Amino acid sequence: MAVEQTLILLKPDTLQRGLIGPVIARLEARGLQMVGLKMLKLDKAKCDEHYAHLVGKSFYPGLVSFMTSSPIVALVVSGPEAVKVVRDMCGPTNARNAMPGTIRGDYSLSTQYNVIHASDSLETAQKEVARFFKKDELFVWERTLDKLTAAADEKK
Fold first, then answer.
1. Strand boundaries in the chain, DSSP class E
2. Spatial contact of 67 and 112, defined as CB atoms under 8 Å apart
3. CA-CA distance, 2 to 76, in Å (whole number)?
4. Active-site residue, from 24, 117, 132, 133
5. How many other C-beta atoms lie within 10 A of the C-beta of residue 105?
6. Which of residues 111 and 11 earns the better pLDDT score?
7. From the CB of residue 138, how many other CB atoms can be counted at a distance below 10 Å?
8. Would you state the pLDDT for residue 147?
9. Which of 20, 128, 142, 147 shows a CA-CA span of 20 to 30 A to 109?
10. What is the pLDDT of residue 148?
11. Does residue 146 surpass a pLDDT of 70?
12. Average pLDDT for residues 76-95, to the nearest whole number?
C-alpha cells in the first residue's frame, strides 16, 4: 500500500458551525497523519485557480462568495491510500446522496454547504497540496508515541 498525501479544505460552513474539531478528530481516528495544517482566507484569484473547472458554471459566483466569506482550514494528511480513504470518509459531493457515517452525510446541509473538499485523485492531490502549502510547511514525522506505547505494552 502506497503512503500518499492529500489536501483537505474545511470550508467556511465548517468554521461557522464549530465543526473543525469533530472533522479533524474523525480523520485522525481513522489513522491519517496530519502533516500540514493552517487557517487562511481565500481570495477570488485563489478560488479561480482552485475551481478552474467550474469558473463558467452558473453557480460559480455563489461558490466564490461562499468560499471567500470567512476563513477556511487547509490541511494535508498522509497515510496508506490517503486519497481514497479521505474521499470515502467524505461521501459524495451532493450532501443529499451522502450516507450517514460519512462526513458530508453527518454534517452537510447542501451541495454547496458540504463542509469539506478533498482531492479526487493522487494527481490532483499533488497539485492541490502545492497550491496551498509550501514544501517547508509540510512535516513528515514519526509517531514515536505509537512506538513507546507498543514497547510499554510488550513489557506487561
1. 3-10, 33-40, 72-80, 116-118
2. no
3. 16
4. 117
5. 16
6. 11
7. 15
8. 66
9. 128
10. 64
11. no
12. 95
* 3-class SS letters over 62-85: HHHHHHCCCCEEEEEEEEECHHHH
Q: List the grid coordinates of 88.
A: 470515502
C-alpha cell read off for 22: 469533530
CATH number assigned to the domain with residue range 3-155, chosen from the 4 options 3.30.479.20, 3.30.70.141, 3.40.50.261, 3.40.190.290 = 3.30.70.141
Phi, psi of 68 (to 5 degrees): -100, 5
Buried b / exposed e along 51-88 (16+ C-beta atoms within 10 A): beeeeeeeeeeeebebbbeeebbbbbbbbeebbebbbe
What are the φ and ψ backbone dihedral angles of 31, each rounded to 5 degrees?
Answer: 100, 5
Mean per-residue pLDDT for 86-113? 91
Using only C-alpha atoms, what is the Rg of the chain? 17
Residues 6+ positions from 47 with CB-CB distance below 8 Å: 63, 64, 67, 68
Whether residue 114 contacts residue 105, with contact meaning beta carbons closer than 8 Å, is answered with no
Domain residue spans of the chain: 3-155
117 flagged as catalytic = yes
